[in-house]
Each structure stands twice: as structure tokens, then as C-alpha cells.
Design goal:
This protein is an alpha/beta fold. It has a single domain, classed as TIM Barrel. Helix content is about 45%, strand content about 15%. It contains twelve helices and eight strands. Helix 3 links the parallel strand 2 and strand 3. Helix 2 packs parallel to helix 3. The termini are far apart. It is an enzyme of class 4 (lyase).
């Protein structure tokens, strides 16, 4: 399939991306040469400041790679920063209610009470794109992914999934494990919660995404409706590559 990330998500295409934990445009540039469908800059759990986000998005756009930013929180300035820098979309952590979901969608798009307009940002081609064209392009491209990682969100998942403008629900399985006080991500309560998100996504026409530590688990969750997988990270690639190198040489 072709189209932007928002269109590919809506079409139900299986998409595979990875997290970027190193605030380096060179890392993004290298990953831009891969066959990944998208990258996600982890500004929630890695040391990304605004200049680093800006530079990494610039590198991704130069490579023609869709790039999401997992923002530190749903604060308006974090969402605005990522989108003004030219991100394809945002992953918003700890969305716990339909009200928070509505706010996240509103702050990610232009309109009354929504994202503030600036024609001087990269997203608007530094004043060279007419306002009408930028508004239309932003509406067609901006991808809003809500991270579901709290018991309260599981309890309210039907209402959250029903919110218009949500492009995907992204399951934070590790956070759910910790929040439920479970000893393993395979705890029945955690598995049931993830299945509940997938089922709600299917009922309301929202795509479901997730991180999985074991690649062998991917087919199971595809069967349950997941289509967006953000797997591994630049850190895990480096560690796995180094381990494989040492093992092969010393074997």
C-alpha cells in the first residue's frame, strides 16, 4: 500500500517501527535507510530536548521516513513542539479517560481550542506554504496515537476508543504489568487487559498498536487485531549486534 502513515493505519496495513532512544540525527539518518515503516522518538523516557527533537525530525524527513514523537506528557507545549518541528504525529502517554482522549486529539489539530498556528515552523515550510494548504495537509497527515497503560484506561477503553480523531491505541504492556502489581507481562490480568484494548479498537474502528519484547508473540496479536508494532530500539539493535559479533568471533 501507499500513502502517509495516517492513511496506512486507517487501511489496516501492518506497520513495523522502532523506538529511537538516542537523541542523534545521525542515528535517525541511519535508520532512515532501513525498511522500517516509521520511527518513534522517545521523548518520554530518553533525553530529547527541543533542539534534539527538531534535528532528528529533520533527518527523518530528509530520509522520507515517517516519524512519531512520544511526548513527555499531554501538555499542549509538548504536542505543539513535536508537530511544529514536522513530526508525522504524536504518541501521547497515560491517557486514562475519554475526556483526556478528546483533549489530546483537539490539541493535535488546528481549530477552536486546538493547536496554535505558526506559519514559520518546519511543518509549514518556513512561511512558504499558504495557510489553507498547511491546514489541509496537517489534517490529512497528523497521526494521533494514545498510549493505554493504566488500569483506569482499561476500565474506560470503550469510551476512549469511541473518540473521533484517534488514529491508534497503543498498549503499554509493561506499565500495565507494574500498575496491576503483576510479576510478569504474561499475567492473565495483563493479557486480558491487552485483549480488551484490541477488542475495543475493532469495535470502534481504531487501530491497535503495541510493543512486544518477544517477536514470536507478534502473530498472536495480529490475530487479535493489532496492526502497529513499535519493536526494539536503536539501543537494542546495538546490543544485539555487538552480542552476535562477539558470539560469532569467539565461537
Amino acid at each position: 500500500m501507499s500513502g502517509n502513515l495516517k492513511q496506512r493505519l486507517a487501511a489496516g496495513e501492518m506497520l513495523v517501527g522502532t523506538f529511537v532512544k538516542t537523541p542523534s540525527p545521525i542515528v535517525v539518518e541511519v535508520l532512515g535507510l532501513s525498511a522500517l515503516d516509521c520511527l518513534c522518538l522517545d521523548a518520554e523516557h530518553a533525553p530529547f530536548d527541543r533542539p534534539a527533537i527538531d534535528a532528528c525530525i529533520m533527518a527523518a524527513r530528509a530520509a522520507g521516513m515517517d516519524v512519531l514523537v512520544r511526548v513527555p506528557s499531554a501538555a499542549p507545549e509538548h504536542i505543539l513542539n513535536a508537530l511544529d518541528c514536522g513530526a508525522t504525529g504524536v504518541v501521547i502517554p497515560h491517557v486514562r479517560s475519554a475526556e483526556e482522549a478528546c483533549t489530546a486529539v483537539r490539541l493535535s489539530h488546528y481549530g477552536a481550542g486546538g493547536r496554535g498556528y505558526a506559519g514559520s515552523a518546519r511543518a509549514a515550510a518556513y512561511t512558504t506554504k499558504p495557510m489553507a494548504a498547511h491546514l489541509a495537509d496537517s489534517a490529512a497527515r497528523t497521526t494521533v496515537v494514545l498510549q493505554i497503560e493504566d488500569p483506569e484506561a482499561i476500565d474506560a477503553i470503550e469510551e476512549i476508543a469511541a473518540v473521533e480523531g484517534v488514529d491508534a491505541l497503543f498498549v503499554g504492556r509493561v506499565d500495565l504489568t507494574v500498575a496491576y502489581g503483576a510479576a510478569s507481562q504474561d499475567d492473565p490480568q495483563v493479557i486480558a487487559a491487552v485483549e480488551k484494548v484490541c477488542a475495543a479498537g475493532r469495535r470502534h474502528g481504531r487501530r491497535t498498536g503495541m510493543f512486544l519484547a518477544r517477536l514470536d508473540d507478534v502473530p498472536t496479536w495480529i490475530d487479535k487485531g493489532a496492526t502497529l508494532f513499535l519493536l526494539g530500539s536503536d539501543h537494542s539493535f546495538m546490543l544485539a549486534g555487538a552480542a552476535a559479533l562477539v558470539a560469532q568471533v569467539k565461537r
